[in-house]
Structure formats: structure tokens, C-alpha cells
Amino acid sequence: MSLYQLLMKRLWLPLIGLSLLFGCAPVQFDSSLPGDDAFLTNQPPDVIVDIQEQLVVVPVRYYGPDGAVHQGQLVVNKALEGDIRQIFETIKRSRFPVESVLPIAHPLIQKKGPYGLSPDTNNTSGYVWRPIVGSRRLSMHALGLAVDINPRKNPYIKGDLVLPPGATYDPANPETLLPNSPVVTAFKKLGWEWGGDWTGEKVDYMHFQKIPPSEKEWVESYRGK
Predict the structure, then answer these.
(1) Longest distance between any two alpha carbons in the chain, whole Å
(2) First-to-last CA distance in the chain?
């Protein structure tokens, strides 16, 4: 089964149910998924099929900076689906503003820059086939085991390198993740690591990652111990 077929199976049936249940509720759908050819075009030639088969798309609802409820889609490893549903309940309940949640392969995101890292992209995402910044080793994102939230407001910083380019970390901004943020607390309660806690040469405020015990050997087979 292709990634697109998997996404369609897991996304559209729940969305149809939501539309029947909520009728004319004021939920805004950020965008539709692209066709299968778009997913293939946006995936590098070395992408591993086994990893893609571990992925699921999780429909999520959240408040945007505009104060409206939006519907998005987050692609993650299936072992983390339950966590993501719980965390986005906290995100929605706390009204923490999220700008957009689209799969990284979506053409609206790809058009703006590789992996969505561009000055005008503030998209929350999970899976993306790429190495760690500055390394050849697979990123946790490549395994679907990491999530980046509001990267424009919660950048990766290593010395003079700031990603996305031009991003700033302003604790006064409502889209910024803080140590006492309900969102950060929700992730940590479920065993996720937050890049905002990292010490040393780099900090990654947008980044959360988790290796479920059941997936430890599988992760080591791709990333090493």
C-alpha cells in the first residue's frame, strides 16, 4: 500500500464522520491532500518503504492565530498515534495557537522550501524524510518519531545558525513554547523529549521526539545505538 493510499484510508473516513457529526460547525479545513504522484515526486529516491509502511495520518483539530478552529493532518509513526491525539486535545483545550498542520509532502509546504524550512513557513509537521541537521544520520522525523510545532516561533538554534531562516524565539508571543506551557507538559507526561531542554551547543524549541519501548530495536536498526 502506498503512503498516499494509507493517508487516504486513515484520513477521509474520519473526516466524513466528523462532517456528519458536526454539521455546520465552524471548523476550517486547511487544505486537501495531493494526489499519489505528488507524494512520489516529493519523496527522495532513497526513501525506505518499510519506514513509510509504519506511518499513519492523524486528523487533528486546533485553534489558529485567527481564533478559529482548524482541521489538519499530522503524519507520524503509528506507535505514536494515541499520543498525538491526546496532545492535540490539550493544544485545542488550552487554545494554544497553531498556524497550520499539513503533511510535509504537501505542495503548499514543499513550494516554500526544503522540509518547509523557509522564512514564511510556520507549519507544524511530523514525518519528513531527511537526515539530522549537519549530519548524514537519519533524523527522528524520518522515522515518524518527532514533531515540530510552530517552527517560525520556536526555532532551532546552533551558534549563528537559526532554522527556519529568520525565525525568532520570543517568550511573549502566544505561539511560543515555554517550559511551563501546557503543550510542553502534555508531551513530557507521555514520555516525549523536548528540544527546548537541550543543553550544550544547540537548542531546538520546536522539536519533540519519542522512541516507544516497542520500537527501540527497530529504531536502532536504522539509526544505530
Answers:
(1) 50
(2) 30
Q: Single out the residue of 78, 83, 73, 63 nearest to residue 12, CA to CA.
A: 73
- The distance of Cα 164 from the centroid of its chain, to the nearest Å, equals 15
pLDDT in tens, 52-99: 888 888 999 999 999 999 998 899 999 999 999 999 999 999 999 999
Helix (H) or strand (E) holding 63: strand 55-63
Contact of 152 with 171, CB cutoff 8 Å: no
Query: How far from 25 is each of 119, 125, 172, CA to CA, in Å?
Result: 33, 25, 31
- Classify residue 194 as exposed, middle or buried by CB count within 10 Å of its CB (0-12, 13-18, 19+): buried
SS3 call for 165: coil
Q: For residues 173 and 117, is the Cβ–Cβ distance under 8 A? A: no
Long-range contacts of 215-223 (CB under 8 A, 24+ apart): 215/77, 215/79, 215/145, 218/54, 219/143, 219/145, 222/48, 222/51, 222/138, 222/142, 222/143, 223/137, 223/138, 223/143
Domains of the chain: which residue ranges?
3-223
